[in-house]
From TrEMBL:
Keyword Chaperone in record: yes
GO term, biological process aspect, one: ERAD pathway
SUPFAM superfamilies xrefs: Chaperone J-domain
Name of the protein described by the UniProt record: DnaJ homolog subfamily B member 9
GO MF annotation: an example: misfolded protein binding
Alphabetized UniProt keyword annotations: Chaperone
Reported function: Co-chaperone for Hsp70 protein HSPA5/BiP that acts as a key repressor of the ERN1/IRE1-mediated unfolded protein response (UPR). J domain-containing co-chaperones stimulate the ATPase activity of Hsp70 proteins and are required for efficient substrate recognition by Hsp70 proteins. In the unstressed endoplasmic reticulum, interacts with the luminal region of ERN1/IRE1 and selectively recruits HSPA5/BiP: HSPA5/BiP disrupts the dimerization of the active ERN1/IRE1 luminal region, thereby inactivating ERN1/IRE1.
Quaternary data: Interacts with HSPA5/BiP; interaction is direct. Interacts with ERN1/IRE1 (via the luminal region). Interacts with DERL1.
Composition skew (Basic and acidic residues), residue ranges: 8-39
Domain J as annotated: residue spans: 1-52
Keyword Coiled coil: no
GO cellular component: endoplasmic reticulum
Amino acid sequence: DLLGVSRHAPDTEIKKPYRKLAKEYHPAKNPTEGEKLKEISSAYEVLSDPKT
């Protein structure tokens, strides 16, 4: 839900929203949102892992 893509979406559909959100919540740009970036990164790892 965080990235707005299906669990079965191909990697190319997962990367685009991940990169957009990672830029938006990066500590250099948004220093108070470090926890949000961790959540986004975790969601990306789960979705991009072919085993899940």
